[in-house]
Amino acid sequence: MTDHPSDSFGLMTKALRVGHHRSSEGEHSEPIFATSSFVFASAAEAAARFSGDTPGNVYARFTNPTVQAFEERLNALEGGAGCVATASGMAAILTLALGLLKSGDQILASRSLFGSTQMLFDKYLSRCGISTRYVPLDDLEAWQAALEPRTRLLFIETPSNPLTEMTAIAPLAELAHAHDCLLAVDNCFATPALQRPLEWGADLVIHSATKYLDGQGRCLGGAVIARDPAVVAEIFGVVRTAGPSMSPFNAWVFLKGLETLSLRMRAHSEAAQQLADWLNAQPAVTAVHYPGLPSHPQHHLIGQQLKLPGGILSFKIRGGQAAAWRLIDQTRMLSITANLGDTKTTITHPATTTHARLSAEERTAAGITDGLIRLAVGLEDIADIQADLMGGLQ
After folding, report:
1. Backbone angles phi, psi at 274, to 5 degrees
2. Domain range 11-259, its CATH number among 1.10.10.10, 3.40.640.10, 3.40.50.720, 3.40.50.2000
3. Which fold has domain 262-393?
4. pLDDT tens figures, 48-70
5. CA 169, 173, 178 angle in degrees (round to 5)?
6. Distant-in-sequence, close-in-space partners of 21: CB < 8 Å, separation ≥ 6
7. 249-268 pLDDT per residue, tens
8. Contact 108, 131 (CB under 8 A)
């Protein structure tokens, strides 16, 4: 069944079956190909492999069967024309930019971005002559007004980090295509289990596999999926030449993570919904940001573009940074770490961790206030999570 055509498979079946092409050993679980190079039968075969005239493995920087199994499986889940795996989520964004943009081009991005993504755009891509302009995520008129002839890429997170802001992908994709631009969606928070941006018109999907695709906080990795094979080839060329490569061991871990992705995302969503409802009733909490709450500005997208609300929420507490730090420090079970997507609940203070490198003005513009706390809700008993938070809330 491993090589059975997978187009008719459901999402969970794809997550279990796609990408594994059994070797002559007949293994049931995907193997790890721990090798840096591959041996050729002849000089002619080596030349044909290097030139691309014949398919096959060349060098593990850009061809490895375990990594390719992960790429094939994630591509099937997202419904793309191809996937390129990278060493981290940030490496995926950098690889995308280097493969598709040139000096003089402009990125039009949402103001609601992960801090490191904004730093990459502003501090490093700007040195290559690639500029970035920011607009509110869910304001289509602002996107329209900000477009320039040199704009080549529209870049969004939906839901965003850490405020879980969302936008409808389809109208933004139509706008991008009308102006000869590509739309890239960071799908880290939702994963293909909850949202498939390519189905809504996006051209590119970015993942930090480190997060929910792994699911247990074990490995670093990233990926870019594209709907156009020519775009895939441009991005792959960067990995082949520059080498921001995923390791075979990490790819194997992500393959195992994908097998339970749908189950975990349903469980994360259920727990986060319960916690968001509970936090909303706490006197010390002034606001809860979670797509599953009716008060969320884009709540109407749940059940449509986003199947379930996901496992990330953030909330504001009275008393600013001092109160936020005090709440975080009094927890005894929750993990104080900026990582997310783990089976264990994690808690962090975005203004001094994930978005600390932004200026105070940039954080204010993005809604990252001193009293904001982000929770990546894990799979512990919800009563235990609530009990661990209660001391700080009181």
Report:
1. -60, -40
2. 3.40.640.10
3. Aspartate Aminotransferase, domain 1 (3.90.1150)
4. 999 999 999 999 999 999 999 99
5. 155
6. 2, 3, 65, 69
7. 999 999 999 999 999 999 99
8. no
